[in-house]
Amino acid sequence: SYGWCISYFAVMASGAVTVPIDREMPAEEISDMVRKANCVSVFYAGDISAKIDFLRQSNPEITDYVAMSGDKGSDADLSLDQVIKAGKDLYASGDRSYYDYEIDPDKLSSVVFTSGTTGKGKGVMLSQTNIARDMILAMPNFSVTDRTMLVLPLHHTYASTVNLVGHYAQNVHIYISSGIKYFQKEMKEFRPKHLILVPLFVETLYKRIWSTAEKNGMTLKLKAMLKMSDRMRKVGIDLRKKLFSSITKNFGGELEFIICGGAALHQDIIDFFDSVGVTILNGYGITECSPLISCNRNKWQKRNSVGTPILEEEVKIIDPETGATLPVGAEGEICVRGVNVMLGYLNDPEATEAAFDSEGYFKTGDYGKLDEDGWIFITGRKKNLIIFSNGKNVYPEEIENEISSIYGVSENVVYAGESVSDPSKEIIVAEIYPDFEALEGHGITDVQSYFNKEIRKVNERMVSYKRVGKVKIRDTEFAKNTTKKIIRYVIDRTID
Questions:
Q1: What is the pLDDT of residues 176-207, one digit of tens each?
Q2: Which of these, 211, 206, 267, 259, lies nearest to 401 by C-alpha position?
Q3: Distance in angstroms (rounded) separating the CA atoms of residues 340 and 86
Q4: Torsion over CA: 336, 338, 340, 343 (sign)
Q5: What gap in Å lies between CA 36 and CA 204, rounded to an integer?
């Protein structure tokens, strides 16, 4: 909301520390974060009054509650309008303390709790230098337009740093979306020229396009148009705006590109959007790096890469066992050193020390490699790595990427199954949430048999130790955090 945005900037400009919190979290977890960060004031939206009531009872150290929008939870609380008026009155009476406050850009300015898809999150401590320099040094990597939409949750640094700080600094007009339910309608209304999204949004748009084409009997025609357009572009003729206007009008008709990060995005989807005239700039970031580490560029992208590092940032690949720096092209843990790297973890010196190597590089926990030009390619997440007793390592993301291209897959997660009857049994499980409606439209009623057959085809392309041994079909979506990443640690991994 607008109230969240101005509260965030005003609090940091006064020298206080912001603690952005996901309002969708259970009240107990919110209370725990507030306590860990020693918060004394809470800015809230009126529609979570039950959670605010819980905070009042469980956190007596909180002295002020400010309702950013909607009704106040208590007559004792302040509204944001009251706070703004009080500030204006102070200034009118000659109090210039807010404006005269000398900001120390290197002191703690924000504590951001990581989303914790593999376990409980940590409090990442960021300074204004971390946040502002991350954007200043990223700006030369790509050229934003003058109009975008804010659709991602602001408690996450991807939205607060990139969508707010980075865009305000470049005089971009930001339309605040009312929520995912209104996303399609608002794109037509506001006509953004570029968007900041996570893969789930892009994948949803992609599936919706093909679903609409199928319902209208236009699938073969669309495929033919894509092939024709791609061939014509190779000889310098670009007719994408004309050929695919019926598709792009659903994005408002003026969308030029999407900056996408937060998780892996299948290259086929990137290629599709490029074919219809919308460039996908795949990027890479992590909360501990404020968050942006690298991104592809408007006029220069590499297939399957997450781009080049921001300026003045050093990236190396290390052997996760020995810590030795690996040569170009070798696969290992991605490490980052630069002014965008966090101050450390809140009240956790041991975790902070463990997160850095002897040269001061932050160990991201992501596996990947660098090519000869310094472009980053991500293989998978260290915490997701499957390690078998024979020493073989499997990155589940590699297999998930292959499975996602199977028709009818809505979501999938790959993991090592845990056999109840035989603990020594080692097997790779692919758990799939199907697009039941799409499968039914193709006359596929035996979903298990269909995916068993399709997974066998995937296995034929894999070395033996990467082959899926069991396919599990689920009836509901995977649990996700509010940045739309699947929460892996809550998945039941037991197998028959």
A1: 998 888 988 999 999 999 999 988 889 889 98
A2: 267
A3: 35
A4: positive
A5: 36
